Structures are given as structure tokens and as C-alpha cells.
Amino acid sequence: MRQIELVSLDAEGTLVTSDFSETIWHEAIPALYAHKKGLNLAQAKRCITEEYNKVGVHRLEWYDIEYWFSCLDLGSSEPVIESCLNKIAHYPEVTEVLSSLAGKYRLVVASGTPLKLLDYLLRDIKPYFVRIFSSISHYRQVKTPGFYLKICEEMAVEPGQVIHVGDSWQFDFLNASQAGINALYIDRSGANHKDSLGDLTALKDLLVSSA
Fold it and tell me: Which of 198, 164, 6, 5 is nearest to 93 (CA)?
């Protein structure tokens, strides 16, 4: 591994839990839809899930809360977002790890979450990062190899000088690896996926051992 200059971290599932997003997408939106359409919650959840699946994770619309509120005719998204803010939480080791790494490396967030939600998710840990990159908001794409190369270009580093950590095998591990970045897969499920990190403390230990 070459001398690492930049540490890139995914947001949801890596730095912060999925509770906020899960509540918005799978509880609050279906509840609002149920009220509007006169359905019970179970029926609304099935309808909403079908709509999500029609779009799929490889299309930009899947990530865009404004698209869904418009498509489903649900009015303003702000009240729903604000009602879910108490669900935002970062993982227990995150603050200590970021504090330790921030003095040694430049830290960035590389996420597929739109900035509208990402700003809320990162509100307590944002000062640790020199840049926040949203593939959706900044480049109108999912996390492709090209997205990671754009980050390298903007941060003036070679891909081999970057470590990226995330919880999506496709979008974080495979696509970052294809860009030439040192990609690491974080698996917080405890399934001990081969060569995966169990949490971000393992990333800190890896960086210390390779320094």
C-alpha cells in the first residue's frame, strides 16, 4: 500500500446508522401515503415498496426525496425530515476514530446520499472532514468508478494514495477498487465477511500498522 494521503468514508452504514433513512423511507413516507390514500399502513408500505423497486438503486431518482414527494403527491418533505431527526446516530467508535485520524490524514465523505439529507446525517461529525462529496448532488451519478476518480482529481491525489471504506460491496468496494483506490468493505453485521472490517476501529489499526 502506497503512502496514504486521503481517507474517504461512506456515510450511511459506515459513519452513521441507517435508522434515520429507514424511518423516512419505510415508515414516515408510507404513513403519509396511507393517510392521503385512505389505506392502512401495511397496504401503504407494500405500495411504496413496489414504487421504489420499479425505479431501483441504479437510477438517480431512487435517492431523491424530492422526486418521491412529487411523484407520490405528498407535499413538502421538510416536516417528514424534521420528524425523523431524532433517529440520527453515528456508530459508537466513530468520534474516537475520526479524532485520531484527522490529525494524520485528510478525511472526506464520499456518499451516494443527496446533500439535503447528508447535511443532517453528518451534523455532529462534519468538522472532521475537509470535503463532503455526494455523487448524486455533485455529479448526478451513483457511486461509479468515475465518481471516485473525480474525488481524486479534486483533492489532487493519485488513486493509490486513497483509502475508501464503505458498506456497499458494489458501490463502495468494487467501484472504488476499479478506480485504483485502496477499497475496504465494512460489514457491521458480524458475519465476518472475508477481509472485511468489523468497524472503523479496524481501519485505524490497519493505518497504524501500515504507517
Answer: 198
Question: Is residue 194 scored above 80 in pLDDT?
Answer: no
Calculate the dihedral angle through the C-alpha atoms of 67, 32, 51, 18, rounding to the nearest 10 degrees.
Answer: 80
The residue ranges of every structural domain in the chain are: 6-17+90-210, 19-86
160-184 tens-digit pLDDT: 999 999 999 999 999 999 999 999 9
Q: What is the CATH number of domain 6-17+90-210?
A: 3.40.50.1000
This prediction's pTM: 0.92
pLDDT tens digits for 126-158?
Answer: 999 999 999 999 999 999 999 999 999 999 999
